Amino acid sequence: MIGAEGQVLAAEGAAPGPEDLAAAERALRRGRVEDAIAPGWEGARMVFQPLGAGLVAGHAPVDRRRRDAGLIEEAVGLALAQGAQALAGLELSRAAAAAQRRAEAEGLRAALLSSVSHDLRTPLATIMGAASSLRELGGQMTPEARDDLVAAIEEEAGRLSRQVENLLQMTRLQAGIALRKAPVDLGEVVEGVRARAARAFPDARVEVRMGPVPMIEGEAQLLEQALFNLIDNAVKFAGTGAPIVLAVEAGAALEISVTDAGPGIAEAQQEGLFQPFFRGDARPAGFGLGLSIAQGVALAHGGSIRAESPVAEGPDFEHPGTRITLSLPLGAT
Amino acid sequence: MTGLILIVDDEPQIQRFLAHALHAAGYETRAAGTGAEALVLAGQVRPDAMVLDLGLPDMDGKDVIEALRKTSDLPILVLSARGEEMEKILALDLGANDFVVKPFAIGEFLARLRACLRRRPAGTPDLIRAEDLVIDLATYRVTKAGEEVHLTPKEFALMAELARAPGRVVTHRNLLKAVWGPAHVEDLAYLRVFVGQLRAKIETYPARPSLIRTEPGVGYRWADV
User: Fold this and answer.
1) Nearest to residue B96, comparing CAs of B65, B54, B119, B68?
2) B13 vs A136: CB contact, 8 Å cut-off?
3) Which among A10, A323, B164, B181 is most buried, taking Cβ atoms within 10 Å?
4) Residue A56: what pLDDT?
5) Which residue in B25, B81, B109 is closest to A121 by CB distance?
């Protein structure tokens, strides 16, 4: 079997000589059978037949003197035809798979655009509307109303800022940029997360449960972002009624978990949870990237992420709750 | 201007600043977060106008408009997002009165709301004045700075359709339907030519129209008085 560039893909018996290769090329070009030269003459000693998909099959000519020459030729013809069919089938499924991947990439890109524009637009609309209201109508408002509008601007600017940060992280993770590795003090990371959460969600209570924990190699900023996203997720989902628990445990691996006492996540939805732009039925907007970034960070550190809902918990929680755990290898490189 | 405005938007932050702004402008407000809630409240509290976001979680905003329009001509101001051009036009064609694109400054929003609320008083004034133009709907006469302007019947009909709703956008489709009939709703190029001719006759500076404003991709808007 000879490929389009003249490379021999498979050969049994005598290897094809230069005249055979020339005949093969002719068969490919003309798209038809090239017969072998009669014995005693110079030229190709094999019969070549194009198979489609840029391939040509060659075989020794059937000895015409045999009584069953006709049958043998038929059998050879059949075998080659089947081979051609199989190749065509393979080609089709490869094209289909490629088309599928392209469609998925397009779908992802469309989802990205739609998610980004929605999630950025609402905070912007509030900021623009509130600011222009203050300027044009501030005089007709009570001090409380004015104050509320200013607070709204501040909150939405914060939300916008987090969205943008998530987007940047997502881009970085998808581009597969290598981690800037350094020894990470998880205590510092957790403290950073707690402070950020306190500023972003002043009504939320975040409880930290952490004992002494070894240092690991990684990127502190990414880990902080991932954990913050988990808390953001918990606040969105479970509200600020019950405390959110951020726990760090070192066992066989380093397990960092964020647990909420919210309504939990149905089993059916748990599978797609970490896909980008996954939105369950009635989830608030802006859920697009946070969890999938957390997964990206876990993977980039050689670890994994998992979700548990309902949480098998003790007396703390009445509601099913959700726990998302980042598992990082100790002594990670 | 005053009245009760029903705000329909699922984002609490949007409800928040709109409520403050509308109160400061002298309106009262109620709010709904879903299409279903909006329809119920509209029946219960009888608002004077509805501000409707197209991106609702439970229902298409357009379905709310359709449902509402079966029984009511409640003025509806639609909030749309940039890039949702088709949605916006469909909403207008279904009966929404006007639109504002997010993010928006409150001034524009209030002006369009005012235009929606403006009702022709009983005993429609037959005279419409705009800049130095006087349109007499009863006698089909138009004067500009005192001088008579000669319009063909179709040109007059086109102008009247726009001038009857000052400050409100009229979609291409609705204009074509009103002046030429439902069979001609796709004749966009035709409409454009006509508007050009009309502008040449009634605008002081036809190249910089102030009476008939273009709303790109959507329709036209007569100047707000």
Assistant:
1) B65
2) no
3) A323
4) 80
5) B81
For residue B114, pLDDT beyond 90: yes
Please state whether B83 falls in left (phi above 0), alpha (psi between -120 and 50) or beta.
Answer: left
- DSSP code per residue over B4-20: EEEEE-S-HHHHHHHHH
Chain A residues touching residue B27 (CB < 8 angstroms): none
Q: What is the pLDDT of residues B90-107, one digit of tens each?
A: 999 898 999 999 999 999
Q: Find the DSSP H helices in A276-326.
A: 290-300
Structure tokens belonging to residue B165: 């709703």
| Weakest-pLDDT range from A63-72, A142-151, A278-287 | A278-287
pTM for the predicted model, two decimal places? 0.64
Chain A residues near residue B9 by CB distance under 8 angstroms: none
Which DSSP string corresponds to A149-187? HHHHHHHHHHHHHHHHHHHHHHHHHHTTPPP--EEE-HH
Q: Give the C-alpha separation, B105 to B116, whole Å.
A: 17
Rg, Å, chain A Cα set: 33
Q: How many helices (H) and strands (E) does chain A have?
A: 7, 9
From the number of C-beta atoms within 10 Å of its C-beta (0-12, 13-18, 19+), residue A169 rates as buried
